[in-house]
């Protein structure tokens, strides 16, 4: 658009005062773009020519300049636009523009209108009932939670700083978990200090729980801890190094059985007897724990999002616990052996312990790879890479959030009992679209939006600090968060000095680079460098905030279960269909490779490895495979290749099962449901369909809320996970090296 000299002066001397009180530089081009969009809506009648749109824009800008010399309110600009259009006899254009502004005001009002959203819930609106893939909206307590969430969101939007609320509603950012926070000053995900709670005892409800005297009791206590923690926060509940946590209680079982053996068994069989009995106790305890977690129902109407990290234990008890966890998962739930959705299993691979065939626990790694081919879990974490990326070793909180290394006053590394205070995600593709190929403009908008992200995150921290220990006794008073507070203590004792994290998320690096370099940019070093620069700048800003406020601001590769759609839909309304960006109807999750391409797992991991360096607050890599149950060595080859490249790797492989014909593989998605490709069975009672959704598994066939949307869900799984990197089955089931796997098992 051509603008006159007078317009250029205006743009540098006048600020626009937005509805939320922000002052932004006046940009004449935004007026032109608004008129052009209105004209586009008249394309089927009589669109206005570009030359005339430019002339109208010049007149509007001149009028603004004549009337204002410092600040202009946004509604005053809109009034001037309307009057100039009417004076120019552009009645149809004025009508479209006025209607658009009215619709925007109406939508803004609806966001805080509880009655409007409750009506959507009653009428089963997909945007309300399907926000979480593991919530069944037909269940009473889920319906109650969704209703409470509507109230929480409406009130929360009014509580937020006005410019943060406005940015969320427009889609510049996404303030996660608005149904819980800020209405309630709740925390997000955590690594529960299970070790300390079991060792020192704790209180649940009216019961004082003493330290357990057996692994069976310890496992039962863990399930109760998980249920209570999950009901007191809104994020994932993780148990770090559970094999090592439970090993001392298995040792108590062994001591008891040794005492029995000395009384009843021949002396040369004492240890064999005690080991056999203890091994059975361990297996049964792990089986009970898995069943208990999958039958728990928290106050928000879902099974707790639970993660178990394990694999580093070296003594006999810990090794038996590791094997029992994997064996129970392979066996499955019930007589049919259905795949357990929770807990998410995260197995640690460590050089010298279980990575190579000569390592003492290598056999457990082999069992883990077998389990992953049959149940998708465990995901794996690479010990050395996690330490390199985050500063110390720990399991992820929830599906992908990682704490950073932190030491207490005594210089001891502390992992358990720490937590995250929430996430706010930046819509990166929108910035790229607004920049229109101008990188200087991109960085200017980026800087402005990061200021909003900062304000949103600081607000999250300040709001959570308003909680009291009495709000969540399990967290603050009874040890889940480590240090036990009294009722009069400030909860900030557990957050400050960078003990807690708060996360700036992002989405759509693929689309950002596409806006500047085209849709095939992955092999372009300049394009990739640009995407890394974005994360580098985000981390630089987060580090500055950490130094300013003394909480750990981290960069988080958001698990965008519904956000991949929400941001794209909003941007399609704003920018229309843009090739390889909005025309796909989704945005690519975090730093993942474009899911429409087909690199090998090796190529995909080599490409993605550079991003978590700057986004160590949350990340995961995925590769997609065909059915691998007869070829676990191929999966192990990828694990070995990944060890020195990436810290956290997930497996996507077909594990659907038909109990009518016993077919195993990938079911066909239809409008009626998931269908066995062998016998056509669609009965949810006799099929087991499990898909991974952003870190956790889900059972879409068992969720009435998604009936009729199975094709959509299947198509969304890949772009949510970024799970590509295709592996071919291969015909021979032989031990392979990484180099052999590259040529033998993987498509080029």
UniProtKB/TrEMBL annotation:
UniProt keyword Nucleotide-binding present: yes
All copies of domain ATP-cone, residue ranges: 14-108
PANTHER family: ANAEROBIC RIBONUCLEOSIDE-TRIPHOSPHATE REDUCTASE
GO molecular function: ATP binding; ribonucleoside-diphosphate reductase activity, thioredoxin disulfide as acceptor; ribonucleoside-triphosphate reductase (thioredoxin) activity
One annotated Gene Ontology cellular component of this protein: anaerobic ribonucleoside-triphosphate reductase complex
Positions of the Glycine radical domain: 597-722
Modified-residue entries (Glycine radical), positions: 695
Top EC group: oxidoreductase
Name of this protein: Anaerobic ribonucleoside-triphosphate reductase
Keyword Oxidoreductase: yes
């Amino acid at each position: 658009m051509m603008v006159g000299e007078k317009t250029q002066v205006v743009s540098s001397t006048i600020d626009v005062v937005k509805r939320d009180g922000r002052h932004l530089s006046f940009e004449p081009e935004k007026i032109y773009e608004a008129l052009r969009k209105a004209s586009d809506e008249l394309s089927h009648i009589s669109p206005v020519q570009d030359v005339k749109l430019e002339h109208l824009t010049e007149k509007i800008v001149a009028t603004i300049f004549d009337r204002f010399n410092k600040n202009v309110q946004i509604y005053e600009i809109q009034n001037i636009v309307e009057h100039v259009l009417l004076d120019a006899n552009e009645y149809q254009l004025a009508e479209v523009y006025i209607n658009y502004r009215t619709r925007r005001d109406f939508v803004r009002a609806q966001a805080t209108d509880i009655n409007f959203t409750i009506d959507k819930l009653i009428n089963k609106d997909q945007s309300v009932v399907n926000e979480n893939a593991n919530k069944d909206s037909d269940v009473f307590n889920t319906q109650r939670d969704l209703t409470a969430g509507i109230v929480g969101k409406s009130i929360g939007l009014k509580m937020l700083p006005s410019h943060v609320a406005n940015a969320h509603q427009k889609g510049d950012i996404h303030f996660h978990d608005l149904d819980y926070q800020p209405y309630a000053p709740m925390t997000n995900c955590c690594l529960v200090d299970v070790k300390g709670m079991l060792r020192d005892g704790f209180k649940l409800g009216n019961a004082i729980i003493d330290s357990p005297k057996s692994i069976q009791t310890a496992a039962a206590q863990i399930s109760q801890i998980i249920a209570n923690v999950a009901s007191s926060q809104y994020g994932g509940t993780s148990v770090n190094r559970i094999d090592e946590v439970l090993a001392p209680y298995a040792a108590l079982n062994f001591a008891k059985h040794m005492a029995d053996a000395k009384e009843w068994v021949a002396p040369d069989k004492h240890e064999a007897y005690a080991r056999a009995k203890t091994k059975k106790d361990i297996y049964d305890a792990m089986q009970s724990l898995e069943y208990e977690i999958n039958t728990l129902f928290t106050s928000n109407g879902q099974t707790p999002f639970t993660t178990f990290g394990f694999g580093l234990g070296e003594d006999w008890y810990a090794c038996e616990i590791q094997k029992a966890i994997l064996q129970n998962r392979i066996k499955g739930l019930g007589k049919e052996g259905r795949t357990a959705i929770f807990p998410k299993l995260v197995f640690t691979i460590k050089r010298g312990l279980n990575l190579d065939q000569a390592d003492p626990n290598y056999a457990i790694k082999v069992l883990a790879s077998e389990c992953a081919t049959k149940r998708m879990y465990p995901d794996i974490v690479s010990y050395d890479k996690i330490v390199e990326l985050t500063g110390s070793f720990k399991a992820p909180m929830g599906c992908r959030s990682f704490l950073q290394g932190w030491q207490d006053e005594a210089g001891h590394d502390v992992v358990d009992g720490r937590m995250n205070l929430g996430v706010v995600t930046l819509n990166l593709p929108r910035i790229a679209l607004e920049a229109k190929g101008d990188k200087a403009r991109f960085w200017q908008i980026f800087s402005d939006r990061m200021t909003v992200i900062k304000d949103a995150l600081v607000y999250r921290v300040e709001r959570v600090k308003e909680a009291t220990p009495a709000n969540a006794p399990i967290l603050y008073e009874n040890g889940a968060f480590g240090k036990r507070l009294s009722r009069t203590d400030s909860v900030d004792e557990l957050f400050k000095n960078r003990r807690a994290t708060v996360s700036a998320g992002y989405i759509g690096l693929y689309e950002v680079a596409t806006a500047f370099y085209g849709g095939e940019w992955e092999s372009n070093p300049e394009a990739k460098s640009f995407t890394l620069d974005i994360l580098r700048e985000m981390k630089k800003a987060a580090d500055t905030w950490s130094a300013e406020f003394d909480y750990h601001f981290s960069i988080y590769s958001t698990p965008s279960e519904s956000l991949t759609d929400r941001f794209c839909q909003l941007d399609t309304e704003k920018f229309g269909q843009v090739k390889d960006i909005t025309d796909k109807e989704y945005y690519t999750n975090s730093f993942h490779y474009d899911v429409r391409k087909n690199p090998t797992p090796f190529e995909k991991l080599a490409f993605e490895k550079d991003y978590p360096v700057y986004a160590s607050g949350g990340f995961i890599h995925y590769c997609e495979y065909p059915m691998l149950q007869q070829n676990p060595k191929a999966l192990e080859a990828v694990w070995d290749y990944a060890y020195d490249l990436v810290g956290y790797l997930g497996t996507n492989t077909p594990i659907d099962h038909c109990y009518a014909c016993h077919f195993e593989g990938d079911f066909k998605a239809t409008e009626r449901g998931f269908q066995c490709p062998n016998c056509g069975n669609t009965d949810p009672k006799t099929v087991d369909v499990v898909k991974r959704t952003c870190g956790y598994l889900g059972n879409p066939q068992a969720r009435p809320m998604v009936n009729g949307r199975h094709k959509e869900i299947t198509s969304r799984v890949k772009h949510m996970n970024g799970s590509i990197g295709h592996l071919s089955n291969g015909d021979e089931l032989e031990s392979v090296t990484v180099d052999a796997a590259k040529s033998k098992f993987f498509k080029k």
